[in-house]
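In the laboratory, one determines a bound structure by crystallizing the protein with its ligand and collecting diffraction data. In a computational setting the workflow is compressed into a single prediction: the sequence and the ligand go in, and a structural description comes out. We illustrate the idea with PRP.
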Amino acid sequence: MERFGKNMKDMRYLTFALGKGRLAKKTLEMFEQIGITCEEMKDKDTRKLIFVNEELKLRFFLAKGPDVPTYVEYGAADIGVVGKDTILEEGRNIYEVLDLGFGKCRMCICGPAEAKELLQHHELIRVATKYPHIAKDYFYNKKHQTVEIIKLNGSIELAPIVGLSEVICDIVETGSTLKENGLTVLEEVCPLSARMVVNQVSMKMENERITKLISDLKTVIS
Ligand code: PRP
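The predicted complex, in C-alpha cell form:
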C-alpha cells in the first residue's frame, strides 16, 4: 500500500496530541471525514491514554489543552490540535499550519458596562484572567495601558462581581455567561478557533505525509 507515497513498512508512526474535551471530539469527527479513524478511542470506558491506528501508522493521545503545544514543541507529538487561545498563551516554538474552523469564539475584555471608561483613560485597573500573557500583550503592547494582572484558573466572570478586579480578559462564545452575570463585552482582543500545530522538525522530516493531511483537511473545512 503506497497511500502516502512511501512503503507502509518503512513508515514511522505520526503522533497526534489532541486537547481533551470538545475539541478532541470535533477533531476526530473531521479526521473521519478524510478516512482517518481510531476505533479504540471511541470506547467511552477505556482508561487508556494512547490509541493506535496500525494500518495508517498513526498514534493519538489526549492531553490537557495547555500541554498540547509543549508535547509538540519537544517532538513527543508531531501534530497537535488546540485552541488559538492556548497557542497565544503558551508561546511555544511550533508551526501553526491550519485553522480548522470549529471552536470559534473570541478573546475579550469584559466587565460591567460602567468599566468601559476605565479602558479609555489609561487608568491603573485590575484584570483577572486565565490568560496572563494574552492580557499583558494586549494591555501593554497594543493599548499601552499599565494594568495589574491577576491570574485565575476558571469562572473568571466572578472576579468583577465580587470586586477582585474591574475587568476580565476571557473567552466569549455565546455571551450567555456574561449576560447571566450582568457583564458585557467591552473590547475584543482577537478571534479564536481550533488550530492544527506541527513540530518544526516533523514538518521537514515528514513533510509529504503532513502536507497531504493538511490538504485533505482543507477539502472538508467549510
Ligand atoms: C468559558 C469561558 C467563559 C465561557 C464563555 O469557560 O471562560 O466563562 O466559557 O462561554 P459563553 O460565552 O458561551 O457563555 P469554561 O466553561 O470553559 O469554564 P471555566 O470558567 O472554568 O474556564
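Residues 18 and 24 are 6 Å apart (CA to CA). Keep in mind that any predicted model is a hypothesis to be tested, not a measurement.
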